[in-house]
Amino acid sequence: MRYDSITEAIGNTPLVRIDPAVHGLRHIDLYAKLEMLNPFGSVKDRPAWNMARPLLEGAAEQGDTVVELSSGNTAKALALLAGMHGLRFKSVTNRMRVPEIKELLLLLGAEIEELPGQSECLDPTDTDDPLTRFHQVLSEPGSTYLHTDQYFNPRNTDAHAAGTGPEIIKDLDGRAPDWFIACVGTAGSSTGVARVLREHDPETRVLGLVAHKSDFIPGIRTIDEVHQVGLFDPATYDTIESVTSDEAIDGMLTLIRRCGLLTGPTGGAAYHGAVRHLRPLDGELAEAAQRRTAVFIVCDRTESYLSYVRRRRPELLGRSRPKHSAAALTDAEIRAGATVIGIEDARRWIGDAEPRPLVVDLRGPHAYAALHIEGSVNIVDELFDELVRGGLPFSKAQPVLLACPVGEKSARYAAVLSRMGHPDVRSLAGGIVAWRDAGAPLVRE
Amino acid sequence: MRVPLYLQPRLEAPLTSLLANRPFLHSLVDALGSPLNVLVPERIAENAERFLAVYRKHHLSGRVYFAHKANRSSALVRRLAAADPVGVGVDVASLGELRHALGCGVTPDRIMATGPKDAEFLWLAARVGATVNLDSRGELEQLAELVRKHALPRVDVLLRFAEFESAAGSQGVSGVRVLSRRSRFGTPADEVSELLSAVERHGDAVVLTGVAYHLDTTGLPEKARALERCVMLLDECRARGLAPRAVDIGGGFGVGYVADADQWEHWTTALSEAVLGTGPALTWRGHGYGLRNEGGTVRGSAALYPAHRPTAGPGYLDELLSLPAPSLARPSATLLLEHLYDLYAEPGRALVDQCGLSLARVLDVRRTGHDSGDYLVRLGMNAGDVSLEEHGVVVDPVLLPRTGVAEESGEDPVGVYLVGNLCLEADLITRRKVFLPRLPRTGDVLAFANTAGYAMDFHAHHAQRQPVARTVAVVRDGASWGWCLDEDYWPITRPGGALS
Fold first, then answer.
1. Which of B216, B268, B300 is opposite residue A120, by nearest beta carbon?
2. Which of B61, B96, B262, B497 stands 20 to 30 A from B343 (CA)?
3. B265–A214 CB contact, under 8 Å
């Protein structure tokens, strides 16, 4: 395989059979269409390229900015395509809820605009919701935007009608599957693939999966949100069912751990929804001699969703507890272990003791820079926490006074350091707040 | 469609026990007429305490200011006057509210003057020594001139800023711009330098004690960004030798009106389907609450208050304070604490959560037309008396039958339109079909729960000479309830005058 451009590697993704021992369906062969193996990592590579391709040359001449309402994979693909053509890319979104994707987009050079939240005090005179405003700006004469408009652009659907759908038929030896299962985001893949499969075999059943309404699965819309998508046509689907984020993660784990498919939660949702829908149908097929087939789409990859998993299933990413942990101490242990010193005593100690105690300010650097005890050093608490896990960060010959805003964190660390064998570490009672309230001097450098 | 599409109100004590006492509520309406507003002053003090508990959890000092505009009641403000003077104050947005708060016993050191201000309002605030939350440089100049001209003491002022997004963008810290709705209030944050120079020039007339923002959004990231910018602005003040120490984060902490998430989700889905024409009509003349059908696609955004919320009020404040600041990365509370700043907040709606009911008598029940199954229920109130629709709040009233029990046998839930007592086609109390456990009868009372925030009498008027609601304060009296007129409530006595 030799290509002149990475865009030539878009499409022709593998169709992989899921081991029946995993899904337990006895009369249905279940296949995964691995769209995550597209070069930019998702099914969106196809529509992004198909929508942008005819416009990129003209846009490059005018120096336009490519713009799309996208919170994820379409933005990623478009950002890369824009970059290849020397164009800027801007993503406008109110759904950028996965931090890795946001950071990845920034790395790719994208600009991100996040739309305002819902209004708290309803203003009935406010007719221009942020999206309407966005479209007004795009359609202004002289606008320098190339808007790919994935939710309304027929070239989104066409990418799948020309690519994804025919590839499935080819890999099934010229037959359409009996069931096609897709998560509904822009509705582009489900609509395009369904059109081709049905033209080939009108009996093909299409299952659309949406996210449970109060839930969030990246890349999938809820039942209300699909109604706002121009490409969405209810007639495309024989059935629409919803999946929860929990179920999506379950499905994802099965595909990762038992099938070797490094999918994201959307693929997990498709797998879970497919098996849940097919299981009773499989039972009814007991008498039929013929085997049936079903295909679902694995949209993208795992790596971008670790924080999504961490938030919902922290136990899946569990770490063992460090040896010296300030967080593990009980209040009683802190009271027993920490030497606490009042403001006046602390001032005397700092002024008169030999050697002079090292004052450690545990606050953030910005706060420290604004005002601090003269001569103190700043080790922000998060960093201090890392330091003490490894061992004592100070010589035992060096007395230490720890200070935080109200004397709570400093007491905790004083107790930990004492346990670790430091002979003279004290915590400033009431912290920098008490220091200020007592009229003791704070400096700004 | 799932019938009935209830949107049952979230009810907590004391509204639960008050609503259970039907004879008491009926006797109030019989005596004082329909509509009638009922307030529970005790609950506002409990709500303030809940907010202060969030402050304490984060080790923050500062004050919770009740945004008086949410409700004009005397009972509520007097009850707050009797609450913790260090932690609780009142935010007034007009001369009338300032006079009222002073008359209710709120001392000037606990009063903050915000909003659009005229000369009289500014003068009285300065005269008594309230804090003035300044909206613009023009207002600062006006205040300083008043102070000098009338030889008033120096006035504590906060500077309210707005438009944090351009200021943050110009720093080039990150490629993410969090957009905000434009506000009429506050000075753009990138004009801080000129504004501070003006504060310094008027140092003989004003003392800068803090900076403020108010954003009309439920979005936490926008608020976290504004809060962080305020910490930076205070830093700039310190660098100039000024010594302010409070960040005022305004209000907008929200209230959950609908108890059940499923009901809210089913209803909002049904609304989309009704707009598309794929489901039955849910609203009077197909009103879409801002949604419209464009060629089979739903466009527009729903002009609805997010009535079901997993977190609101103090819980929302806690979330905001726990959210990491966008560039300094410390949680907002930590940021305030480490910089030694006090926190001011101005909840209006959230502070009167569960504090009040609006009651209306059922006057008439009939069908809309011979070929329609819809019922019209006419109430002894109008859309101005309980302006839920005006604020986009959709929630069911509670049916308080005149006789018998609420769930009488053989009667089914029913969807009705609630119409008002004005001779106007537009006078609907709700534009949505409201489902009730049974068809109301003349003489029943409908109780709109949790209306003390903005809904109770915000738009009440004397048009067409219909009676405007009286307001009563109710207090626990052993196992029963006592009541007095709102203007007669004092937190130190029981109704009737005995010291409590």
1. B216
2. B96
3. yes
B177–A112 C-beta distance less than 8 A: yes
ipTM over 0.95: no
Residue of A nearest to B223 (CA): A117
Question: What is the model's pTM?
Answer: 0.88
Say how many CB pairs under 8 Å bridge A and B. 130
Token digits for B464?
A: 């067409």
Q: Which residues contact B384 (CB under 8 A, 6 or more apart)?
A: B459, B460, B461, B463
**Among A214-223, B38-47, B85-94, B178-187, which is the least confidently predicted range?**
B178-187
Would you give the end-to-end CA distance of chain A in angstroms?
62
The two three-digit tokens of residue A132, written as one number: 């309407």
Backbone angles phi, psi at A363, to 5 degrees: -80, 175
φ and ψ at B490, to 5 degrees?
-130, 140
pLDDT > 70 fraction of chain A, expressed in percent and rounded:
96
- Cβ atoms of A190 and A168 within 8 Å: the answer is no
Structural contact between residues B396 and B359, judged by C-beta atoms closer than 8 angstroms = no
How far is B483 from A321, CA to CA, in rounded Å?
58
**DSSP per position, B53-89:** HHHHHTT--EEEEEEGGG---HHHHHHHHTS-TTTEE
pLDDT of residue B169: 45
pLDDT tens for each residue of B155-200: 999 999 998 875 444 444 457 777 777 778 899 999 999 999 999 9
- What six digits make up the tokens of B24? 């008491």
**How far is Cα B36 from Cα B50, in angstroms, rounded to an integer?**
28
Nearest chain B CA: its distance from A345 CA (Å): 22
Q: What are phi and psi of B322, to 5 degrees?
A: -90, -15
